[in-house]
Write a structure and sequence with these properties.
heterodimer; A: alpha/beta; Rossmann fold; B: mainly alpha; ABC transporter involved in vitamin B12 uptake, BtuC; two-stranded antiparallel ribbon
Chain lengths: ~290, ~350
């Protein structure tokens, strides 16, 4: 699991001890409405955190505020430093952002899109160097989109396009990786690939935060943040039963978390048939 | 450079693809340059008496070529290039392939200012023809275009929200358009001169205009290319562009300024030539998929070639009668977009 040559050195940290991102009293107002009502949060380095919650809970807003992409009140710290004190380019090298269902760029070639991830590493003339090409190639191979590097984004399917956009975020080579709904349009094998990719990122000492709608996939993360109505209702390890209870509670007990082998899955909670569900699942896992 | 990169790159597998991406835009660039040169020669061979082979020119014919037809052809090309460039910037900035350079109100602003000047000068005969008046009209056109864009920016309270910017542009366009119609209604004598302006003409382009257009084209092209990465990044959305360390607000302001300067200058010299700004970037994109670093200069080349071709046709089709070039660009540009629309899948 050695670090590829093109990746910037990540400060060696004992997982879980050093702070990757944090916020204190984080409030965000969009238009007239306050969407986040004072969130205190501390995320450790070398861990993957999933952000979950019902629609409109403020997940995307939280992620954007952490990435310093939204005006906010309260303090946000990146790698121990106030996010506002970073120079934009420097911050862009430390934090990669993948937005939700990014559209546009239909006429750009996949390779040119991924190369945009190298912008923070290039001077204003933007001439890509050898390191940039290596990073782009590696990122495209990692998300398995290298084969269509010379196709325009508009000619790709939703899943292919998402893998190119993911490669774009990876090409930044940032220690902090923030992704909003990165699994949209991905089929199950590529969802599994994505999980493996995030695992590699955190194994290298990086930190990942992702908003996920699919609770079973969120339970693959190290930690889970549960948001409801702009407030943080729970922050705990994904294996912790307290986290499972918090998840069930935030979704009005319409889901139930089950253990399947060494993993956990969330299934719709149907009063009469939940036992039947788990037994079917146990069988399919064998 | 390529050789050095190939040596340094660890995975030569991807190199062919990379080189293809970067060298492909050069081919259309060469074709467009060639077409421009040929069209320029054609432009010099078309006069009030129809087609005249260049090699037969002698005596006063040479001075007609040099003083009238060459600046007119070069001016048409440069103005078209400005419109093509402005169109590519507008489409990138607004992330909308239907955006055109007149979106922020520059066209209606220019026509209102021209209408006001014509009305103020009265219907004195020869107003539209005299060089001094022509200079005044050019200045008025430019000032009108600039004022309209500035007003759009004020109404939109800056450049932060593209939708607000577009709506403000529509509002300014409608109000200014209504005001120019009102001026024409009150002072019907200006109608004919106004109509010439609204249809666009290359008939008044001399060497001073060509130099001005060329300088503005150079400035706008350099500024556009310097900010081309911003346009690429904006294609992925504002949040992504900002996350890549781009100061989106200031960059957008520069791009709006480039668009306004290019459009205002072209409109002031030509009048309202339709469709070049919209069609040129589409023409380029239908041939080559590339980044804005190439798309901007290619759109300028395509815009220049398109307008010059339309101008040559406008002069040659019914010689010695001359069609307003704007009518031809609208018909040809509209037809081209129609073809493109039916060729595009979905």
């Amino acid at each position: 699991m050695s670090r590829p040559r093109w990746m910037p050195p990540v400060v060696p940290a004992q997982a879980g001890t050093q702070e990757a991102m944090a916020c204190e009293g984080l409030r965000v107002t969009l238009g007239e409405r306050e969407v986040l009502h004072g969130i205190d949060l501390r995320l450790a380095r070398g861990r993957w955190t999933a952000v979950v919650g019902p629609n409109g809970a403020g997940k995307t807003t939280l992620l954007k505020a952490l990435a310093h992409l939204l005006p906010h009140q309260g303090q946000v710290r990146l790698l121990g430093r106030d996010a506002g004190h970073w120079r934009p380019r420097e911050r862009a090298r430390a934090l990669a952002w993948l937005g939700q269902a990014e559209s546009g760029a239909e006429d750009l070639l996949a390779r040119d899109v991924v190369m945009l991830g190298r912008l923070p590493h290039q001077d204003w003339r933007g001439a890509p160097g050898a390191a940039d090409h290596a990073a782009v190639d590696a990122a495209m191979r990692e998300t398995q989109c290298f084969d269509w590097r010379d196709r325009a984004l508009g000619q790709l399917s939703g899943g292919e396009r998402q893998r190119v956009l993911l490669a774009r975020a990876l090409a930044v080579g940032a220690p902090l990786l923030l992704m909003d709904e990165p699994l949209a349009h991905l089929d199950p094998p590529h969802q599994a690939d994505w999980i493996a990719l995030v695992r590699r990122h955190v194994a290298r000492g990086g930190t990942a935060v992702s908003v996920l709608h699919e609770i079973s996939l969120a339970l693959q993360a190290d930690d889970v943040l549960v948001l409801q109505d702009g407030r943080l209702t729970h922050h705990g390890a994904s294996r912790d039963p307290a986290t499972h209870r918090a998840l069930e509670a935030v979704f009005d007990h319409r889901i139930a978390v089950h253990a399947v082998g060494a993993q956990f899955v969330a299934l719709p909670h149907i009063q009469s048939g939940s036992d039947a569900h788990s037994s079917t699942l146990s069988r399919s896992e064998d | 450079m390529v050789a050095r990169r190939a040596l340094q790159r660890p995975a030569p597998v991807g190199d062919g693809g990379a080189r293809m991406t970067h060298s492909r835009p050069k081919i259309p660039a060469i074709w467009l340059l060639l077409a421009s040169v040929l069209l320029c020669a054609a432009g010099m061979a078309v006069g009030s008496a129809g087609w005249e082979p260049l090699w037969q020119a002698q005596g006063s014919g040479i001075s007609i070529l040099w003083e009238i037809r060459l600046p007119r052809s070069l001016g048409a090309w440069t103005a078209g290039a400005l419109l093509g460039l402005a169109g590519a910037v507008a489409q990138g900035l607004f992330r909308n392939p239907l955006a055109d350079p007149y979106l922020l109100g520059s066209a209606t602003g220019a026509s209102l200012a021209v209408a006001l000047l014509l009305a103020a000068l009265g219907s004195a005969s020869g107003v539209a023809g005299g060089w001094a008046a022509r200079l005044g009209l050019t200045g008025a056109g430019f000032i009108g275009a600039t004022v309209a864009v500035a007003l759009t920016l004020v109404l939109a309270r800056g450049v932060q929200h593209t939708l607000r910017l577009l709506l403000a542009g529509v509002i300014v366009g409608m109000v200014f358009g209504a005001l120019s119609a009102l001026v024409m209604f009150w002072v019907p004598e200006v109608m004919r001169a106004m109509q010439a302006f609204m249809l666009g003409t290359t008939g008044f382009l001399g060497w001073p205009a060509v130099s001005l257009l060329a300088v503005v084209l150079l400035v706008c092209l350099l500024a556009g290319i310097a900010f081309s990465r911003v346009l690429d990044a904006l294609a992925l959305g504002e949040a992504t562009a900002a996350s890549l360390g781009i100061a989106v607000g200031p960059a957008r302001l520069v791009l709006v300024a480039v668009m306004a300067l290019a459009t205002g200058t072209a409109v002031a010299q030509l009048g309202l030539v339709a469709f070049i700004g919209l069609a040129a970037p589409h023409l380029v994109r239908s041939v080559v998929k590339t980044t804005h670093r190439w798309l901007l200069p290619l759109s300028a080349l395509a815009g220049g070639a398109l307008l010059l071709a339309a101008d040559v046709l406008a002069r040659g089709l019914l010689a010695p009668q001359e069609l307003p070039v704007g009518v031809l660009t609208a018909v040809l540009g509209g037809g081209y977009l129609l073809v493109l629309m039916h060729r595009r899948p979905g």
